[in-house]
Automatic annotation (TrEMBL):
One of its GO terms (molecular function) is metal ion binding. Its EC number is 3.1.3.11. This is fructose-bisphosphatase. Residues 1-21 form the signal peptide. Pathway: Carbohydrate biosynthesis. It comes from the Eukaryota. The keyword Electron transport does not apply. Its cofactor is Mg(2+). GO terms for biological process: fructose 1,6-bisphosphate metabolic process; fructose 6-phosphate metabolic process; fructose metabolic process; gluconeogenesis; sucrose biosynthetic process. Residues 56-268 form the Fructose-1-6-bisphosphatase class I N-terminal domain. One of its GO terms (cellular component) is cytosol. It catalyses: beta-D-fructose 1,6-bisphosphate + H2O = beta-D-fructose 6-phosphate + phosphate. Keywords: Carbohydrate metabolism, Hydrolase, Magnesium, Metal-binding, Signal.
Length: 411
């Protein structure tokens, strides 16, 4: 086989697996309309550049858009995410240098009562600007913003974007930032929803009171269940910089090639191992967890769970790093409900739902113990949710334990 043929067949396999994961027989596939189905109709056009460089994220997205022109605006948003992740990766890497002045605290507390680090604020601003100037962003909600923001109406020449499709972006710009001073991995988490045009606010024409109804509509745009996500991604800033995404048809991992300055497809059609032997939760909280979870984890430690594997612990305390390892090696990552925090610690909208989407699209499961995370509609933007996600069989064992406990409570 010549070089182009080898490359072409690899891509066709990737595209085939994207289509396959949309099969209605796949219990994990979302209830999607045809707009989100990636068609295999036309053979992609390739050149020898990719044979030398690998498939860049830009190339990947343009192939997707070529085959699915209706996803064109999403391609533009991913262009902004690509740039923002590279910029944040540089900021995090340089943050220890005395000249960077990005370390330490901002002196502000965010809406969840957490001390904001300078990097939280800088990366929030960076991502906000990158997405805003695509002209495809309707509303944005961030861990670092008290309320959702409508940024499109404040763009210069906003009118030129009036006919383009808009999206709602929800994100945590720098998750795990409390670890950054110790050089521990951090990450950015992003979820993308469709946008309801009726939410545009003209800030020039209204006082706070007059706008409240529109603001409520705007807010409603962001309060969507994970099932409505059209795309999700995370960037992990670690030994390498990774960008992992799903468009609802499989999970794809890219690694930043620092020499090229491009994300290169390194993990096509990721599949999380179905069973594993890794527990990744803050075990200092074990005694406060729900009894079914405590019992299951204890069985795993003794090698008495369904798989018979003796489990081992791996916990960074930085969700993106822990989820990335879980995707690659399998196991369970969680921040479950406990007696002190009945809804756990992690936020549903911009942490729980996008990560659950990515994990499910790689063949894993994500639950609160009692409910699939993707089915929960948030009541407010910064709502927390208990999370247990990872290898299908291991998460199922937890779900079964909760079901058995509630059945015996009823009996
Ligand atoms: P920070 O962003 O404040 O560092 O919190 C990180 C995080 O939200 C998530 O990334 C971790 O999984 C989780 O908190 C760790 O929490 P514990 O320190 O309570 O284990």
């Amino acid at each position: 086989m010549n070089r182009i043929a080898v490359f072409s067949s690899t891509i066709l396999l990737i595209l085939a697996s994207r289509v396959e994961s949309f099969s209605p027989a796949n219990p994990l596939s979302k209830n999607v309309d045809s707009r989100h189905i990636i068609h295999q109709a036309k053979a992609p056009v390739f050149d020898e550049v990719c044979d030398v460089t690998g498939i860049t994220l830009k190339r990947f997205m343009s192939e997707v858009v070529l085959l699915n022109p209706e996803l064109g605006e999403l391609g533009t948003l991913f262009g902004a995410i690509d740039t923002a992740c590279k910029a944040i990766s540089n900021l995090v890497k340089r943050s220890q240098l005395p000249s960077s002045e990005t370390l330490g605290y901002q002196g502000e507390v965010n809406i969840q009562g957490e001390d904001q680090k300078k990097l939280d604020v800088i990366t929030n601003d960076l991502l906000k600007r990158a997405l805003r100037f695509t002209g495809r962003l309707g509303v944005l909600a961030s861990e670092e913003e008290d309320e959702p923001l409508d940024l499109i109406s404040s763009l210069p020449n906003e009118a030129i974007f009036s006919d383009t499709e808009k999206y709602v972006c929800v994100f945590d710009p720098l998750d795990g930032s409390s670890n950054v001073d110790a050089g521990i991995p951090t990450g950015t988490i992003i979820g993308i929803y469709e946008h309801d045009e009726t939410c545009a606010i003209d800030f020039d024409d209204c006082t706070d009171d007059e706008c409240s109804e529109q603001e409520a509509q705007c807010l409603a745009n962001t309060l969507q269940a994970g099932n409505n996500l059209v795309a999700a991604a995370y960037c992990l800033y670690s030994s390498s910089t990774f960008l992992v995404l799903t468009l609802g048809a499989g999970t794809y991992g890219f690694t930043l090639d620092e020499n090229l300055g491009e994300f290169i497809l390194s993990h096509p059609a990721m599949k999380i191992p179905e069973t594993s032997s890794i527990i990744s939760m803050n075990e200092a909280n074990t005694f406060m967890w729900d009894q079914p979870l405590q019992d299951t984890v204890m069985k795993w430690k003794r090698g008495e769970g369904k798989s018979g594997n003796s489990f081992s612990s791996r916990y960074i305390g930085s969700m993106v790093g822990d989820v990335h390892r879980t995707l690659l090696y399998g196991g369970i990552f969680g921040y479950p409900s406990d007696t002190k925090n009945p809804n756990g610690k992690l936020r549903l909208l911009y942490e729980g739902a996008p990560m659950s989407f990515i994990v499910e699209q790689a063949g894993g499961l994500a639950t609160t113990g009692k409910q699939r995370v993707m089915e929960i509609t948030p009541d407010y933007v910064h709502q927390r949710v208990p999370i247990i996600l990872g290898s299908k069989n291991d998460v199922q064992e937890v779900i079964d334990a909760y079901e058995n406990a509630s059945a015996s409570a009823v009996a």
